[in-house]
Amino acid sequence: MTGKARLLAGFAAGAVTVLAVQVATGVIDAPPSTTVVAGSALPAPAAGRSPGGTPATSKPPSSSAQPPPPAPPTTTAAAPAAETPRVPAPQQPGTVRLPGGGTATLVRKELGPGAELPIPADLGQATWWGAELDAAGGASVFAGHVNWRGATGPFAELWTDRIGGQVSIVDGAGKTWRYTVSQLVTVHKNDLAARADELFGQSGPHRVVLVTCGGRWVGGSDGYEENRVVIADPA
């Protein structure tokens, strides 16, 4: 991921006030689908037989005789192959599965000195800080890469997820926690500080917050111009 992820937080009255978050991201292109139709023509009549199936004679036809009309060709469309329902692979402990099927390994981190949010060391990881999954309140925040050194990561789908999508988390003990997407938020990085407590704070009902970046590439410490935040409530 290009860019340095920082999150400055202040603690007051049991709530977290987050001042800035930066994470890098990208986009995914969906491949087009194709349909194939096959057809075949009737075979030519065998040598020595007429198109109607009667034996052919050596007597030339009279000038008044009309040749039989040729049999019309036929075309048969191949029946579409039955699609096998896709069964997702069993989710492994210590992972988060996004609505589109992308999966990342969770790496539990706490805010360090200067309240800097650690970023994942690998494309297939997501850092987790904030509330535990069994907490009564507060945000469990998961930050992930979307592109890294030319490769696309699972968090790219945050830009195409929709309200009502399902997020599942399997903790280290193998217990599954399910959430339903309730909010899709795109925030310019210049505006993120003002909304940080609203989106990432530890007050309010328990929720899962997935965050990454995207939009226009601006380089520097920001990387991408915007953040994408997907909020999911317990199902």
CATH topology of one domain: Sortase, Chain: A
Spatial arrangement of strands, main beta sheet: 3-4-5-6-11-12-10-9
Total strands: the figure is 12
Radius of gyration: 31 Å
Q: Quote the distance from N terminus to C terminus.
A: 31 Å
Could you estimate the helical fraction of the residues in percent?
under 10%
Our estimate of the beta-strand percent is 25-35%
Average predicted local confidence, pLDDT: 73
In the CATH scheme, the class of one domain would be Mainly Beta
Q: Please trace the helix and strand order, writing H or E for each element.
A: EEEEEEEEEEHEE
Can you count the helices?
A: 1
CATH superfamily of one domain: Sortase
Could you characterize what this model shows?
The structure is a single chain. With 235 residues, the chain is mostly beta strands. It has a domain of 163 residues: Sortase (Sortase, Chain: A). The chain has one helix and twelve strands; from the N terminus they run ββββββββββαββ. Strands 3-4-5-6-11-12-10-9 form an eight-stranded mixed beta barrel. Strands 1-2 form a two-stranded antiparallel ribbon. Strands 7-8 form a two-stranded antiparallel ribbon. The protein is globular and about 60 Å long.
